[in-house]
Amino acid sequence: MTIVLYELVGADEKRPFSPHVWKTVMSLAHKGLPWRSAPTRFIEVPQIEGGVSKTIPVIRDGDKIVADSFAIALYLEETYPDRPSLFRGKGGEAMARFIERWSQTQLHPFLGSAALMDIYEMQDGANKPYFRESREKRYGKSLEAVSADRDAHLDAFRKRLEPLRDMLNYQPFIGGQTPFYPDYIVFSAFQWVRVSSPYAFLADNDPLWDWVNRCLDLHEGVARKTPTAA
Amino acid sequence: MTIVLYELVGADEKRPFSPHVWKTVMSLAHKGLPWRSAPTRFIEVPQIEGGVSKTIPVIRDGDKIVADSFAIALYLEETYPDRPSLFRGKGGEAMARFIERWSQTQLHPFLGSAALMDIYEMQDGANKPYFRESREKRYGKSLEAVSADRDAHLDAFRKRLEPLRDMLNYQPFIGGQTPFYPDYIVFSAFQWVRVSSPYAFLADNDPLWDWVNRCLDLHEGVARKTPTAA
């Protein structure tokens, strides 16, 4: 049965931008499971499937509804054990949580701030006021002021990527010779900005591009096919 | 057969301080393998087992000699598969390399600088000149100048620990409910400074102490038994 994936979109349904949803897109593609998109805008999220979650992604797989990207990955791994593994054992499953928290605490704050105005501009008329109000409350300043600050933090952000860059001296993916869920966790943070903003968060000569491009090529180029910001 | 572990020591053989050796001590204890220490000082390292390695740890297990903490962990996992696992599957093995590079790039530079003068003071008369000369060449300044700088970088270091701190909201170890090699990778960086320096690299109220104390309690308190710096 085709899995339904509630994806976060703005005015353009062809440009899903949520990093957490991208983790699930890559997980579904990795497992080779058929799925269809249910495009969802910010203010529609609380209504998904009768209000099961305040956040996205949410999937419906037959009668089963699962929210939260990490919980979805665990669900897919348990439910489809004969498909390619997302974790390759209990050790991978446990350690993936560390990678998730690394990505969330070291990469997301900068990337989310850097793309903030561009994500705002992607929203339709009904969602723009919601986005501005909720984010300005969270940051304690205007969207414009948050994004204006990004250049000042760019060097520190690029330095925080050093563990990933250094790992590539040993192996082509976090998963070793082939990718798995932790690669998707980190790649999805980059894909978030690729889709929503033209901001050059990586230098053109950053060796990380090799890994980003390998991720973009995966699964028939599912991530590369989505139009990026101009 | 008892495994021989070449450990790095200073004047006092009872205080092995190398973080990389601590990874191996914890790995051997995790596997429950009998081993004995071969205390080694910096200038003796190139002579170990006929000069197999420029760095420590090195182990001898019967006829087999293995150098490098990560290679040793892989060797122990492969050679003693019936003992408790250090990686719990291929996923854990692959991802451990990312954790190693995180620890090496995000934790070691600060911790090594912060403890530098104290590590110097631990060396015996023959090793002090070697240590001073090689480290001053590496840093491009005096040992005293490197250590004097530590307070200025302390806050940034503590912030870089956020992924680990945040992970503890989900699980007690990087390995999930129980520890494994990646826990030892990170813990050993802390143990390095505990043994060599009185410097308070963690605030007294840092929630990470819960995890550090859990690690110190492991395997009959093998890490806690080593005398710390005054």
UniProtKB/TrEMBL annotation, chains A, B:
State whether keyword Transferase applies. Answer: yes
Boundaries of every GST N-terminal domain copy? 1-84
Tell me the CDD domains matching this sequence.
GST_C_etherase_LigE, GST_N_etherase_LigE
Q: Which UniProt keywords apply?
A: Transferase
Please give one Gene Ontology molecular function term for this protein.
Answer: transferase activity
Name this protein carries in UniProt: Glutathione S-transferase family protein
Q: Which organism is it from?
A: Mesorhizobium denitrificans
What is the phylogenetic placement of the source species in the record? Answer: Bacteria, Pseudomonadati, Pseudomonadota, Alphaproteobacteria, Hyphomicrobiales
